[in-house]
Specification:
Number of helices: 7
Radius of gyration: 19 Å
Distance between the termini: 30 Å
CATH topology: Four Helix Bundle (Hemerythrin (Met), subunit A)
Strand content: under 5%
CATH class: Mainly Alpha
Order of helices and strands: HHHHHEEHH
Structural class: mainly alpha
Number of domains: 1
Strand order of the largest sheet: 1-2
Helix content: 55-70%
CATH superfamily: dinb family like domain
Length: 182
């Protein structure tokens, strides 16, 4: 397998993993008001982050190789206004953004990685644009997970190894690996 193909496949896997973290967080939220909670006036709610990410994905990844990633049709400032969208409406828009994004990722070819694309007037290689979006989306999804965990407190179901469970996890993984080799 070429490095380019590996990079594209790995990148898609990384984005799918981050998406899963966010969606496992959404699954733990029970009320629309949890999506709209912000700890202070300067913070963004999960709803705002979802709208921002979906708006970014639709703008950046529509006609990705041929037009500037900051479309004139995007209302970025509007993404940061708290609304009253329901959980279902937010998830529908979130899924629309991911659909545009993943379809574009799946259409990329190895030879596309060094092509130049434009985002906000700045020329980047496709590889640079992918790395930029990895950091951007990971940042926002980390905030979604943090807010959801904060809201659920003791009722939070860990998305990774729970606190104070590392040694149990390692023992289990070690024993699983030994039994698979036998």
């Amino acid at each position: 397998m070429s490095f380019e193909k590996h990079f594209l496949e790995n990148t898609i896997g990384v984005f799918n993993n981050y998406r899963a973290l966010a969606e496992k967080s959404f699954a733990q939220l029970n009320h629309n008001k949890e999506y709209h909670y912000a700890p202070d006036l300067e913070s963004n709610s999960i709803a705002i982050i979802m709208k921002h990410m979906a708006g970014n994905m639709i703008s950046r990844w529509t006609d990705f190789l041929t037009t500037d990633g900051e479309k004139t049709t995007r209302n970025r400032d509007g993404e940061f206004i708290e609304g009253r969208a329901s959980k279902e409406e937010l998830i529908k828009y979130w899924n629309k953004g991911w659909e545009v994004f993943i379809n574009t990722l799946n259409s990329l070819q190895e030879e596309d990685l060094l092509k130049t694309v434009t985002i906000r007037g700045e020329g980047l290689t496709v590889a640079q644009a992918l790395n930029r979006q990895t950091a951007h989306y990971a940042y926002h999804i980390g905030r979604i997970v943090f807010l959801a965990k904060h809201l659920k407190s003791a009722d939070w179901n860990s998305l990774s190894i729970p606190k104070n469970k590392s040694s149990e996890h390692l023992k289990g993984s070690y024993l699983d690996n030994i039994s698979q080799k036998s």
